[in-house]
Amino acid sequence: MKFFIDTADLSQIKEANELGILDGVTTNPSLMAKVGIKGTEAVMQHYKTICEMVDGDISAEVISTDFDGIVEEGKKLAAIHPNIVVKVPMIKDGIKALKWFSDNGIKTNCTLVFSAGQAILAAKAGATYVSPFIGRIDDSCWDGMELISQIANIYSLQGFETEILAASIRTPLHIVQAAEAGAHVCTCPLSSITGLLKHPLTDIGLAQFLEDAKKFQ
Ligand code: E4P
């Protein structure tokens, strides 16, 4: 399973990348706003900086909602760097645009996916990635992980090549469960990635080993 970090914060991207296990980055307009990026030039430059930091797929989201606008914006984003993946919302014109990008060799990430039906449409349109939002489904008292399993089962039965990108990850347990459910990629906050490190028996065991090491030094 691939690991993406879900942030536009360069210091967090750097920290995750230095672990040596990072395969890419996802951003969205809310994450860009959170780090204070303003204006088209600054947005483009920020994506370029991320692409230069991480050797992997970098999702950059369009804000247009009509076919022509999505295609124009997506072409500009894709021109920034070969690793840019154009992130397109799951709407009617988004599906048309996904097909256009797919036919024109531009990688895509279909975002805001909350049902298996939407995931089928994204795959039919040739999306590179489909992003079911696990955490937001859980927040609505539905089972986000069940959706990952359902999509994984359908894609496997139907031979769809679109990769399942588990998004809206909130905890380290989400990562483990998404891996079990068949997600190809998890995009996670840094805290969920580093949370995977934690186990009290590791800390206790290491303290004991370091204590015992003093006996033969
Ligand atoms: C990533 O591609 C998504 O935009 C992101 O994971 C959404 O996460 P959130 O539900 O925590 O905002």
Automatic annotation (TrEMBL):
Its main location: cytoplasm. PROSITE patterns: TRANSALDOLASE_1 (PS01054). GO terms for molecular function: aldehyde-lyase activity. CDD domains: Transaldolase_FSA. Keywords: Cytoplasm, Schiff base. GO terms for cellular component: cytoplasm. GO terms for biological process: carbohydrate metabolic process; ketone catabolic process. It comes from the Bacteria. InterPro entries: Aldolase_TIM, TAL/FSA, Transaldolase_3B/F6P_aldolase, Transaldolase_AS, TSA/FSA_arc/bac. Transmembrane segments: none annotated. It is found in: Cytoplasm. Pfam families: TAL_FSA. NCBIfam families: fsa_talC_mipB. This is Fructose-6-phosphate aldolase. It comes from Lacibacter luteus.
